[in-house]
Amino acid sequence: MDWLYVILLYMGLFPTLTPYRLTRMSEPIHNGAPPPALMTAIRRILRPLVRGFIGFGVTWPLLADILKRTYVDIARDEFGLKPDKPPTDSRISLVTRVHRKDIRRFRLETEPPKLDLADSSVGAQIIARWCADAQYLDEAQNPKPLARTGTGGFEHLARSVSKDTHPRAILDELVRGSLARIDADDFVHLDMNAFIPKADFENLAWYYGLNLHDHIAASTHNITGGTPAFLDRCVHYTHLDDASIAELEALSRQLAMDALLALNTRASALEARNKDRPEATKRMTFGTYFYAGENTTDADGGFEDA
């Protein structure tokens, strides 16, 4: 009975999270290992993220470098033994399992290094060379159509970038992603329009980071025993047809917009009142979302993402 879930959640009648409940972020898990339920949740959280990463060519080496640096940054900023003393490299290595040589290298860097695009997807590297190497450009310096096989063709280009992946597999992925097409004469065309981002992409990406960061930050605060708990509620039903989904989505948009407009009006007035006060240093985010997918389960017993 899904409505019962909502009522119990709002009344606070679910059991507390002991023995894994933490009073401070710096305290270790009691038994020295992360809770199995949390590991299951992490796998679910990562699925839609990784799907997006793959779609944009963010490969594992690129993500691994970002994750490693983030682990070190968070451990240095938030997991020291004394508030006024930064943790040692040994302490950071202990809580993150990042090797001390990497921690030292990060500490000595004067500015964040550029990501090594050699770790980007093979397709991205091929496209980069196709757009830059004179033998693959026409007189106007635009990427020219390439014969699928033969010297100077697509397979030649692909093998010059990677000998580990078959050119046909690379071409299939480029075509699948609408980055390239094959004409009737078996020439491969690079679709330059596919690389022109939507006018609002940077804005969308900024809010992608803001919304997910703040929602996950609120949930992490709550699950680790932070008090007072942040608002983090949802309504969840599992046996609905397409018409029901459409009706509920429309209702969600209406109710969400009403709530957002009301909160925006009040927040704007409060910010105007507080703007000259030295103690006005806080920020807030309030958001809503709606998601619908198939009522099927994944290997962890959670709902698969469409």
Describe the structure.
- It is a single chain.
- The chain has a 3-stranded antiparallel β-sheet.
- Residues 1-28 have low confidence and may be disordered.
- The longest helix is centred in the last third of the chain and has 33 residues, at 242-274.
- It has helices spanning 2-11, 36-55, 60-78, 89-96, 100-108, 122-132, 154-161, 167-176, 201-223, 242-274; strands at 146-147, 180-182, 187-190.
- Among the domains are: 121-195; 237-306, no CATH class.
- It is an all-alpha fold and 306 residues long.
Oligomeric state of the chains? single chain
Strands of the largest sheet, in order across it? 1-3-2
Number of strands: 3
Order of helices and strands: HHHHHHEHHEEHH
Helical content stands at: 40-55%
Estimate the mean pLDDT confidence.
82
Percent strand equals under 5%
Q: What is the C-alpha radius of gyration, as a whole number of Å?
A: 25 Å
CA(first)-CA(last) distance: 24 Å
Low-confidence sequence ranges = 1-28
How many helix segments? 10
Tell me the major beta sheet. 3 strands, antiparallel
Identify the overall geometry. extended
SSE-based structural type: mainly alpha
Question: What is shown here, in short?
Answer:
The protein contains ten helices and three strands; from the N terminus they run ααααααβααββαα. The chain has helices at residues 2-11, 36-55, 60-78, 89-96, 100-108, 122-132, 154-161, 167-176, 201-223, 242-274, and strands at 146-147, 180-182, 187-190.
